[in-house]
TrEMBL record:
It comes from Ruegeria faecimaris. Keywords: Aminotransferase, Pyridoxal phosphate, Transferase. This is Adenosylmethionine-8-amino-7-oxononanoate aminotransferase. NCBIfam families: PRK07483.1. Its cofactor is pyridoxal 5'-phosphate. GO terms for cellular component: cytosol. GO terms for molecular function: pyridoxal phosphate binding; transaminase activity. The lineage of its organism: Bacteria, Pseudomonadati, Pseudomonadota, Alphaproteobacteria, Rhodobacterales. Belongs to the class-III pyridoxal-phosphate-dependent aminotransferase family.
Length: 422
């Protein structure tokens, strides 16, 4: 009998014993094409450069607490990330994963306003149908009703505006651009409702992952969001934990939207699964407010900036940039989109096929014309996950309540090294 406490306590999971390129191998020798359990494995499972970087770093120094020392891989990784980062992002704070990154971003926003003498700024605005992680602060920002439900009494009060979800919410006769401006303007209305002097940050995923299934914003949406944040002095936090690190065809997903945030969160593809690591990037304006003020960021975990994790991420980033893998994600993503359209665009239960790069979503509906979701009681996602696993495919199906409307999608996020036949 196993003593591991799994997330799904009613199912028996295969034991992973090996990884080879895009495949995971279980104890019975069965191979599974990894099309993105959670969009982590961007380089596949047997990248030599990353494995050797991890081995060599453990030999040198496995751990040094960042309260006392920095480390060579952390310094080199921060430099390389900033070389490629959009806008004025200038400093990198390393954490162990995505929830820690968004949690730290919220606390950094709060501390920034304290340091510059605006203590009344305390509200975070995020979007419905979003996911920012499972720790209580990150869960408070997330707008997924199902994930929040049982913890609701413990969550921090944050408000949520509409996501940019063209397929389901654009009105008849409305252009994509007009739709994007209309939903972006909800941010301004919410800032005015709360009182601009009380709002500290707006948080959003450039391409919504787990909750909606690879839904990018329409053209112009994020430019309007950036304008509104600037107008009211509100910090823009972009959560690229799932969509970042090349997955959408750009190293940073927001490059596609032509804007840069004040704080950017990354994880998953940063360590590509070889080590648990995340990061929060911020502008020098924010960093200097703390440096010239209290001199201490009031947040930290034991494993921030872990030398082995940062060494792995440095090797991942070198692989991504030297082999132009984001470009490959863009190209292979278009092939995947065409293949999905050829196979499913006439399927009566496929409502939409969308995404960017190697980050694709298939929305499932019971009726195409009415875009009617399936009855949630069917538990479609669980059934698809099981059927896919039996067939040797790992993908990420989700059923969820979306503002009272249920919905199902399948997320596909394969490694960037995937080939056409696979
Ligand atoms: N933010 C987004 C957009 C995510 O998709 C996730 C995880 O799926 C997180 C944050 C949380 O990351 P982690 O699971 O590494 O804590």
């Amino acid at each position: 009998m196993s003593h591991v406490f799994p997330r799904h306590t009613k199912s028996q999971l295969p034991v992973a014993v090996g990884g080879e390129g895009c495949y995971l191998i279980d104890a019975d020798g069965k191979r599974y094409l990894d099309c993105g359990d959670a969009a982590v494995s961007c380089l596949g499972h047997s990248n030599r450069a990353v494995i050797e970087a991890v081995q060599s770093q453990v030999e040198k120094i496995a751990f040094a607490h960042t309260g006392f020392m920095t480390s060579e891989p952390a310094e080199a990784l921060a430099d390389l990330l900033i070389d490629h980062a959009p806008g004025d992002l200038d400093r990198v704070y390393f954490v162990s994963g995505g929830s820690e990154a968004t949690e730290a971003a919220i606390k950094l926003a709060r501390q920034y306003f304290l340091e510059i003498g605006q203590p009344e700024r305390r509200h975070v605005i995020a979007r419905r149908q979003s996911y920012h992680g499972n720790t209580l602060g990150a869960l408070s920002a997330g707008g997924n009703a199902w994930r929040r439900a049982q913890f609701a009494p413990m969550l921090i009060e944050m408000t949520h505006i509409a996501p940019c979800y063209e397929y389901a919410e654009k009105q008849d006769g409305e252009s994509s651009h007009a739709y994007g401006q209309r939903v972006a303007d909800e941010l301004e209305a919410e800032i005015l409702r709360l009182g601009p002097e009380t709002v500290m940050a707006f948080m959003a995923e450039p391409v919504v992952g787990a909750t909606l299934g690879a839904v990018p914003a329409v053209e112009g949406y994020f430019r309007r969001i950036r304008e509104i944040c600037d107008q009211y002095g509100v910090l823009l936090i972009l959560d690229e934990v799932m969509c970042g690190m090349g997955r959408t065809g750009h190293l940073f997903a927001c490059d596609h939207d032509g804007i840069a945030p004040d704080i950017l969160c990354i994880a998953k593809g940063l360590g590509a699964g070889y080590q648990p690591i995340g990061a929060m990037l911020c502008t020098s304006r924010i960093y200097k407010a703390i440096q010239n003020g209290s001199g201490f960021f009031q947040h930290g975990h034991t494993y921030v900036g872990h030398p082995v994790a940062t060494a792995a991420a440095l090797a991942v980033l070198k692989e991504l940039t030297s082999q132009q893998l984001p470009l490959r994600a863009e190209f292979m993503g278009q092939r995947l989109q065409s293949a999905l359209e050829t196979a499913f665009s006439e399927h009566p239960n496929v409502g939409d096929i969308r995404g960017r790069g190697l980050f694709r979503g298939i929305e499932l509906v019971s009726d195409r014309a009415g875009k009617t979701p399936f009855d949630p009681a069917l538990g479609l996602a669980g059934k698809i996950k099981k059927a896919a696993l039996n067939a040797g495919l790992i993908c990420y199906p989700m059923s969820g309540t979306r503002d009272g409307r249920s919905g199902d999608h399948i997320l596909l996020a394969p490694p960037f090294i995937i080939d056409g036949a696979q």
